[in-house]
Amino acid sequence: MADVGKRFDAVVVGAGFGGMYMLHLLHRSGLSVRGYERGGGVGGTWFWNRYPGCRCDVESMEYSYQFSAELQQEWNWSERYSPQPEILAYANHVADKFELRRHFRFNTALTAAQYDEATQTWRVCTSEGETVHCQYLIMATGCLSSTNTPDFPGLDTFAGQTYHTGAWPTDGVDFSGKTVGIIGTGSSGIQSIPLIAAQARQLTVFQRTPNYSVPAQNGPIDSARVAEIKANYAEFRVRNKAQQAAFGADYPRRGDSVLEASAEERARRFEEYWGYGGFMFLAAFGDIGQDESANFHAQEFVRNKIRSIVKDPRTAELLCPDTLIGCKRLCADSGYYATFNRDNVTLVDVSEHPVEQITPGGLVTGGREYKFDVIVFATGFDAMTGALLKPDIRGRNNLALGDKWHAGPRTYLGLMTAEFPNLFMLTGPGSPSVLANMVTGVEQHAEFVASLIQWADAQGSREISVAQPAEDEWVEVVNMRSRATLFPRCNSWYLGANVPGKPRVFMPYVGFPDYSAKLAEVVDNGYAGFTTRGVAMGQH
Ligand code: NA7
């Protein structure tokens, strides 16, 4: 039965890695906590993204919780990069081990939340008709959880099946004997295309912008390496947290300039890093992310790889990006480019002639209709702000979060936004979030929020908020850091560029170690930038 009027110390929204750990910490510290999750189970991203080939682009030994040494030791990964089913199994294992499920209401989304100044609590409404009150509201709703399906005319008229990679059916999809169209060649498209191609009768890929992809070089996990890491997991974690993106500590990030290297050394180094696989390709030289001419050499290497893999020269050229490499998130694949050598795969460039219409039989682009049994949308997400702005969240003076953020998100540390007391975000815009190992990021935020709540509680405070100047300064810091990189120079979802009408603001904070140092400094200075207020005790 739906709860109406019940009161909790805290409500946590989302049962992904962030929400599960946040709930665990708050419950352990003695607070009454209710969790809401719109999915039917735990796992967040890994609950929804069940498309074929879905796997993490951070290595298995790194993409996991570090708060429990026992958990770290007992769990065994089978591949260097974990496939989605294994990560989902891990999330379920964590939920069982720490008895988290009983605190969550599943298949229940947050629809609205309103702050009540008089009681210093949030009134929270859900899709299932629950209305509860809580002191603290914590949005652990993920950075890539609100799917983006472009508003194609005729979308509802299609007679076949449509699927979005980010909301894949629990039972999977059988493409055998089917004629399939897929729109989108970001990470989800690049991971799923080889597997769909292997099953479908015919696959047509609609590409608006080619993306750079480096082979993941995935395979069975190296058991000797696992033993080595497990023998000293804590130190491994410390090494990783000292990295810009909080992963990849054990393979050298080279600091020298590609521009100063000889042609032979450039070729040798890029080949070595291509062979190692994944994101580390960008660490082959120190200036790929900073300098456009340096970046060009890395681009050329990948373009030449594409040309050497893809047999049809016209298709190869269409697959070659001409943008900065690493500016959009680099993709890690298993056999993506070679898939275009298959007889049953066709690439259609929609950069000049967009998808005009979905018809009952398929879709139209460039004045031609393509017929399909199934259309897959690998069209990405309303990243970072989408899930926060979906519910109607209102702070002081009935201010809507959407109105406050009409020109882009504004936060202090990616954790809170002024005028919305007692509302926290985990890995919100303005924190390293998607530019770092997400599990490390959510753990850091959950621990920070739990400590801040305890600290405020110890002072008799019932309200935590952010001082406006602290937020304004932080927004400037985030902007300044992104301007020192090449990130703002392309149309990525980091900037909201993939969603029509979304304000163009670079959302993540660049650099996990500096961010961690900032959090430590804030704590050392008595949670500088945050303010507390108590009903009984008056102003602090
Ligand atoms: P992405 O990386 O945002 O990719 C979405 C793709 O869909 C991208 O190729 C887009 O082209 C394409 N797209 C979006 N709208 C359209 C329309 N209207 N017509 C044609 N093509 C379109 O999302 P993913 O799910 O692949 O990956 C997201 C992250 O998840 C990834 O970075 C990893 O961190 C995990 P565009 O490039 O915008 O021209």
Describe what this molecule looks like in 3D:
With 540 residues, this protein is an alpha/beta fold. It has two domains: 6-146 and 383-534, FAD/NAD(P)-binding domain (3-Layer(bba) Sandwich), CATH 3.50.50; 155-223 and 248-377, no CATH class. The protein is built from 16 helices and 21 strands. The strands form five sheets. Strands 1, 2, 3, 4, 5, 6, 17 and 18 form an eight-stranded mixed beta sheet that branches. Strand 8, helix 5 and strand 9 (202-207) form a beta-alpha-beta unit. Helix 1 packs parallel to helix 14 and helix 9 runs antiparallel to helix 10 (313-319). The longest helix has 21 residues, at 438-458. The two termini are 40 Å apart. Residues 535-540 have low confidence and may be disordered. Ligand NA7 binds next to helix 5.
What is the topology?
Layout: E1 4-13, H1 17-28, E2 33-36, H2 45-48, H3 69-74, H4 84-97, E3 104-105, E4 110-116, E5 121-126, E6 131-139, E7 161-164, E8 179-183, H5 187-199, E9 202-207, E10 213-215, H6 223-231, H7 233-241, H8 263-276, H9 292-309, H10 313-319, E11 331-333, H11 336-339, E12 345-349, E13 355-358, E14 362-365, E15 368-371, E16 374-377, H12 386-389, E17 392-394, H13 401-404, E18 423-425, H14 438-458, E19 463-466, H15 468-483, H16 512-524, E20 530-534, E21 538-539
Parallel strand pairs: 1-2, 1-6, 2-3, 4-17, 6-18, 7-16, 8-9, 8-16, 9-12, 10-11
Antiparallel strand pairs: 4-5, 5-6, 13-14, 14-15, 19-20, 20-21
Helix pairs in contact: 1-14, 9-10
The structure holds ligand NA7.
Ligand NA7 binds at residues 144, 150, 165, 183-189, 206, 208-209, 329, 350, 354-355, 378-381, 493, 498.
